[in-house]
Amino acid sequence: MSASAADRAGRRRLLFALPLLAFVGVGAFLALGLGRDPSQLPSALVGREAPDFALPPLEGRDEHGLSRADLGGGRPMLVNFWASWCVPCRVEHPILDRLARDGVTIQGVNHKDMPDKARAFLEELGDPYDLVGSDRQGRVSIDWGVYGVPETYLLDGQGRIRYRHVGPLQERDLKKLLPMLEEAR
């Protein structure tokens, strides 16, 4: 067999092997990704103080708004990013109401929402928030690394972020969250 015939045979084998290698690579990538919990997105903020911010109040709800100075104060709390147009926010709302009734401090950040719709949402489903800041442009949400609403952050008494939950809080999530709240006290 001549050198050029051997080169052609080698190229032919390579052409047959490339799709197989690509298929194996894609399969390995999917296998690694599918085993991950999507609510466990990494956050560079976990272990750090919450970002500095100052939001105006939700019009018609209160006069204070929400700022970095409202976080911590010696008690752990949740900071929940939500919106009236967010269907998963409706799903998690009964959990937030129950946590608030049980004495958990929850601060709310209303994300890119119309004030009248946000107030109607709270009137319809209940208002678990101590304070609500209106993030109409979504800038504070970006600073916190929010991918989309709802997202909930657990802060310790010094205002450091201890945990981030992406997506709606559900009953099964409380098994992890409640012990973390106790530990943060």
From TrEMBL:
One of its GO terms (cellular component) is outer membrane-bounded periplasmic space. It holds the Pfam family Redoxin. It comes from the Bacteria. The keyword rRNA-binding does not apply. One of its GO terms (biological process) is cytochrome complex assembly. SUPFAM superfamilies: Thioredoxin-like. One of its GO terms (molecular function) is disulfide oxidoreductase activity. It is found in: Cell envelope. This is DsbE family thiol:disulfide interchange protein. It comes from Marinimicrococcus flavescens.
